[in-house]
Each structure stands twice: as C-alpha cells, then as structure tokens.
Amino acid sequence: MIPEVKFIDLGLKDYKETWDFQTELFDANVSKKIANRKQEDETLHLETENHLIFCEHPHVYTLGKSGSESNLLISEAILKQLDAVYYKINRGGDITYHGPGQLVGYPIFDLETYFYTDIHKYMRMLEDAIILTIEAYGLKGGRVEGMTGVWLDGDTDKARKICAMGVKCSRWVTMHGFALNVDTDMQYFNNIVPCGIVDKKVTSLSVELGRKISIDEVKSKLKTNLAQLFNYKYSE
In angstroms, what CA-CA distances link 185 with 2, 12, 74, 189? Predict the structure, then answer.
C-alpha cells in the first residue's frame, strides 16, 4: 500500500512558530508509537501520520547540536540591525541561514512504519530530490564526501552548496529537513561560517542562472520529485 503524506504550505512563516508546529506533529507520532508498543491489543493500534511542510522564513540563523557558536560572526546588536534572529535548535549539523526566497522543507515522516529504517538512505534520498529538481534548470548537483547537502562542482576548488540539510530522528520519526536557496539574499551568509565549513561557498538558483527564479515553480517540481522518490502520494 502506498503511504500517504499530508502536504502543508505555510508560505512565509516565523521560524519559532514553525518549529513549534513541527514539534507538535513529531511528538504526536512518537507518542503514538510508544503507546502502540505497550498495547497488546492490535485493534487499538494508533495510526501515525506523515507530513511535508514547505515554507520560507523571515531572516534567521539556526545552530545545530554539533555546531559552534563561534560560527556566528556578528553580535546580537547587529542581528537586531539586520532584523534577524538566532536560535540553537535540536537538529544535526552546524549553523545555517534561512530567509525569504529560500525553500525550506520539513518532512515529518514515520520511516519505520511507512518507508525503511535507514537514516543515511533517507538523507541521500532528500539530496536526490534536490538534485533532480535543480537538474530541471540545467544545473548538475552532487555530493561532497563526508558532507550533507547538495553541491555544485563538489569535487573541485569551486565547490559551492546550494542546499543545506539537517534532521532530527527519534523512534524513526523525522523532523527538520532541507533549505534550498532559490532566490535568496546571499549577503546574509556573510555573517556566518555556513555549516561550519570555512573553505567552500554557498550559492542559489538565481545566482547560478543569472535571473530571478519563481519559488512556487520550484516548490511544484520538488514536491513531485519527493513523492516519486519516496513512492508516496499526497492525501487530499
């Protein structure tokens, strides 16, 4: 049976509000799975749900559990001047930037029940969805060994990241996800060491193509690619 995923497009949404919303969906799935393992009567089995959230955020910097605060290169006063905020959060990875023109995706998937129990495979499939999406614009995305995300010219000294990734997974339920730079103001990346990597740059679809790219168009392509790769359908 093909899994179903509920798609939610939040548009431009505050980071903390979105994080709280993700957490509610994530916690609900985890709680159901814990209850199911304690319940011997299978007729009382609680069904978990899969969600895919797309959104953009106002200017925000987020630091993952394995990151260093020294990779934020500006003071709190300058953050305020830039109308940006900063959060330490519970995903993997280091520091990154989110802002308007960047397509952020948060899959809250129950991998164990509907897909597979392999977090590395999950990450690679997210990367594959991004690679397929940017390929439609004539860009050849790839990987850099030992690093997550999607890169252009990853095996050269011109390597630049177009999509950052960082997830949390507990009891095979995921949250957080990916951030694809579509028509992002790249100057905001100058205030951090992106993903803690000092010798590589970041880029966007608009920078690479030299023209403004519609984020709604990219959403449509990426939404389709994710469903095809993970072999799920969107619920009505």
Answer: 39, 15, 17, 8
Would you say residue 200 has pLDDT above 80? Answer: no
Cite the active site residues. Answer: 195
Structural domains of the chain in order of their starting residue, each with its CATH number: 4-230 (3.30.930.10)
Percent of the chain residues past pLDDT 70, beyond the cut = 97
Residues 6+ apart with CB under 8 A from 119: 111, 167, 169
- Short-list 181, 166, 204, CA closest to 62: 166
3-state DSSP call for residue 105? strand
Assessment of whether the complete model's pTM goes beyond 0.90: yes
Residue type, position 23, single letter? T
Q: Which helix (H) or strand (E) holds 88?
A: strand 85-88
Q: Which of 22, 214, 188, 56 is nearest to 133 (CA)?
A: 214
Distance CA 157, CA 57 (A): 31
For the stretch 141-170, pLDDT in tens is 999 988 889 999 988 889 999 999 999 999
Percent helix, strand and coil across the chain, each to the nearest 5: 35, 30, 35
pLDDT at 43: 67
